[in-house]
Amino acid sequence: MVNIKKSLIHTAKIFLVFAFSGYQSGLLAQQAGEVRDQEFIIRKDRVLTLPKQPRKFERIPVLPTPKSSSTFNYTVQPYFLSLPPEFIRPEAAQKQWPRKQEELFPGFVRLGYGNYSAPILEARYNNWEEEEYNFGVKVKHEGFYTGPIDGSNSAENFTQVKLDGSLFKDFFQLYGGVDYDRHQFKFYGYDPTNEFLADYVPNQNTLNNFKLRGGIQNIEKMDNFNYDVGMFVRTFNDQFEARENELGLKAYGDFWFDDDLSTGIHMDMSLTSPKDEFYENIKRNYFRINPFVQYKKSGIYIKAGANIVFENDEALNKKSDFHLFPQIDAHYMLADEFGIYAGFEGDVIRKTYFDFVQENPFLGPSERLLNTIQNYKAKAGIKGVLNDELTYEAGLAFGKFTNMHFFINNPSDTLRFNMVYDDDTRLVNYNAKIGWHIANTYRLIASANYYYYNTSTLGAAFMRPEWEVSINNNFMPMERLLLQFNANLMGGIQGLVNFGPEETNLVQLPAILDLQIKADYQITERFSAFAVGNNLLNRNNQRFLNYPVRGIQGILGVTFKF
Question: Where in the cell is it found (predicted)?
């Protein structure tokens, strides 16, 4: 009964399906506009049987060819442990990279000898292996124990000792050093043919200068803020009565807003106490501060600032101890091959007795020491680079100066010079420079200057050249040989000759032409030989009136590296 009942239910379901299908067809037919009568017969005893059909299975798809992939995904499970992150400290590789052999020699000794009884000894040593500090030592002595006039009566010699050291910390560097310079010479500017001076022995003078210096500066120069502050103490004396002590301070700082715009400040201070035959107990104070702003981008460079100076020199034409001058400097490179520049600046140029005697060692007792007031100096010109080998620059500068110094022979002792000052000097300077280099084979550096002085209280620009030419050539025809050929020319120098208390005469010195040649040949990695020739034309050159320089002079020597 149960089976028969299930069969009847199943049959009824089938007929209902067909009935519903037929009803849907009728509806579709009615929608098409056709109406028909339908008759349905329900038979309960009919059994439906369906034929067996084979089951269809889907085909297995072809798997794609595996390809490598650099992208990997990982599931990271969080572990909530209170562990500090690992600290990794980078360190430089300890491998000893190969370097050139010449870099392995921190020091050298040079020995030589030439005519005019001229020995030369030079030794240098630099310790650069330590990590936190380094130091260097330099000792040099060069003598000319005979000279151009009466042998030993025109002798001179130079001695120099220099110590340098630096201590490096994480962010700054401490540096310092000691300098000692000694120059011994004789006042040989007399006429050796004068029979009254047959047994004359000129006075000898020795200039001693000792300097102790130290400072601090930052190491990373690419920081936004950079600084360099240094102090020094210097003492000078000669064999007579000239003395000078100086305490100096030099400071520099700049701040970069970005790669193009920056601002900075320079500061110089000099406190000196000179003494000589005609003065003592003098305090010459000088303080200069130079704030500025500079901008550079795309071939444009502009620097604008001011020079603020206080100095207490006593001069008749002086209006105030305080000076304020503008400063502007600019250039614009239209291309690498061509650019223009211009500038305008006023300043007070510091001059100490040591500065004067470095320029002219044959000074007699000085009567007064004055700084030079640069009321203004304007310049303009062109410059550029051609084919990455030739550099050039040509320009014009003119200015107005107060208390510019000059040298004249002492009326009572022509072997010595006095300093004289001009109240109002106008100076025009035409200048040109050129540089040329060909790989590592040849290099040329040359410059030329023409000066026009218009003095107010002096008859001429005594002992200053009217024109100067300098030519330096470096040749390297082979790997071990270096040749240098230099030429220095100077002319238009005027001196003042005194014949009596009221009779004077201007004299123009002959043009100076000094040709020089140097050669250095490396024999081994440690040994090399050198040769130097000066004044090859054997000219009677006089930089200062009555003081001819040495004639042809040569030196031969060797250098040993250690």
Answer: Cell outer membrane
| Residue 96 located in a structural domain | no
Does 85 reside within a domain?
A: no
Structure tokens at 109: 């000794």
Specify if 29 maps to a domain.
Answer: no
Q: Is residue 481 part of a domain?
A: yes
- Is 70 exceeded by the pLDDT of residue 547? yes
End-to-end CA distance of the chain: 124
Q: Structural domain tally of the chain?
A: 1
One-character DSSP codes across 398-410: EEEEESEEEEEE-
Q: Is 510 helix (H, G, I), strand (E, B) or coil?
A: coil
Q: Assign residue 236 the CATH number of its domain.
A: 2.40.170.20
Query: By the 8 A CB rule, do 408 and 421 touch?
Result: no
pTM as predicted: 0.79
Return mean pLDDT, the chain.
Answer: 86
Residues 6+ apart with CB under 8 A from 1: none
Which stretch of 5-14, 249-258, 386-395 has the lowest confidence by average pLDDT? 5-14
pLDDT in tens, 150-195: 999 999 999 999 999 999 998 999 999 999 999 999 999 998 888 8
Asked whether 404 and 421 are in contact (CB, 8 A), the reply is yes
343-346 CB contacts, 8 Å cutoff, 24+ apart? 343/377, 343/378, 343/379, 343/380, 344/376, 344/377, 344/378, 344/379, 345/307, 345/374, 345/376, 345/377, 346/307, 346/374, 346/375, 346/376, 346/377
Residue 365: which domain range? 107-561
Do the beta carbons of residue 140 and residue 159 sit within 8 Å?
yes
User: Has residue 27 got a pLDDT over 90?
Assistant: no
* Region of poorest pLDDT, from 88-92, 136-140, 364-368: 88-92
Beta bridge partners, 141, equal 121, 159
Place of tokens 């210097």: 234
* Percentage of residues in the chain having pLDDT higher than 90: 71
